[in-house]
Amino acid sequence: MKYYLAIDIGASSGRHIVGWSENGALRTEEIYRFPNGVKEQAGHLTWDIAALLSHVKAGIRAAFEKYPRIESLAIDTWGVDYVLMRGGEEILPCYAYRDDRTREAVRAVHEKVPFAALYAHTGIQFQPFNTLYQLYDDLARGRLNGVTDFLMLPEYLTYRLTGVKAHEYTNATTTGLVNAHTRAYDRELIAALGLPAHLFGPLSAPGSKAGALLPEIAAEVGGNTQVCFCASHDTASAVEGIPMSEGAYLSSGTWSLLGAKVLQPICSDMARTYNFTNEGGVGYIRFLKNIMGMWVINRLRAELAPEESFDGVMEMGKESAFDELVDVTDAAFLAPVSMKAAFDAKLAKMPRTAGDYFRCAHRSLAMSYRTALRELSDCTGKPYETLYIVGGGARNKWLNELTHEFCGVRVVALPIEATALGNLSVQSSHNSF
Predict the structure, then answer these.
(1) Catalytic residue chosen out of the listed positions 99, 137, 234, 356
(2) pLDDT digits over 321-333, tens only?
(3) Which residue in 197, 200, 243, 370 has the most C-beta neighbors within 10 A?
């Protein structure tokens, strides 16, 4: 029996999941779980990459203790964030995407290359935290002086395990610097922005091998294995883990990512106006829209009802009759000091109870899904009658009910570890179970 290890790291937690085939079915076991989160440092939001690496190694060690022979492992994380390197040395801090450092960079980038031209090249939606804006801020502040490499977070962790520096395709597309048509880094765009050309190497396809663990890492974790590149952007792995042949998908977690698989990028004026994005998939394009997601509910819970479970918060919302809505795609909800205050500023009628806020948040998310589905159909020219929901949000039964009610589609909620399953699927397809 062959065992594979998926290391799936999200913005709030990470997990190590071992997968194997048994009686024709994929079985999984969570071996290790650890917390994650942004940290404030000198007025900026950052990631503790040393802690991430320590947890990655601890989880591998735990996996080897139970499964002494593991065929391969692969790491996925959220997109856009990266580590700058000067040889083998990190240039810290590692900024988190919710930090607001790119405000001036966005304006400066669009002065050099208007957003319409960016979109025509890359098909990537505007988000103020897209990697190209972060890198341009680094350039303006001199942080790129002497830099030899930039590595997206999964590739940085892979480098620390193997000594191999590489760029994986699906995660690279979240930079806003990959040409949607050639599916390689866009040299014309990189030159226009004045970014150092040597930072942008060839792209590795999902399923490519990085190499074995370094001897010192193998000694530390108690075993050795092949390290692969899965679809290292976690949403790409999540979509790969959805058992679907048609319809639209919704990866529902901190972010809600709603879209469909398409064979060719859609970089039309309509898609740009609707702010859809064309991100890399495993042999297809993930044409989707980023929506603020469970983040708004989670932050309201932390502020208004920290003692309540997620089910309790859901019940509080169901008991309310408050019918006001907000646009959850508004940038005001990205990283407010107070999520309650952010809602208050967007509502004409003020909520009176915590349940009012939770009802508003749930219904506003469902409304955003309806809008995104309509826009998806406009752009692709196809109707969508089924919506597959995976991720933590798939467990929110009331939100699923509201989504069915607002969108008028069949909702198939799959409360599975889709990201880990997609990670394992890519590994197994290149290293047969």
Answers:
(1) 234
(2) 999 999 999 999 9
(3) 200
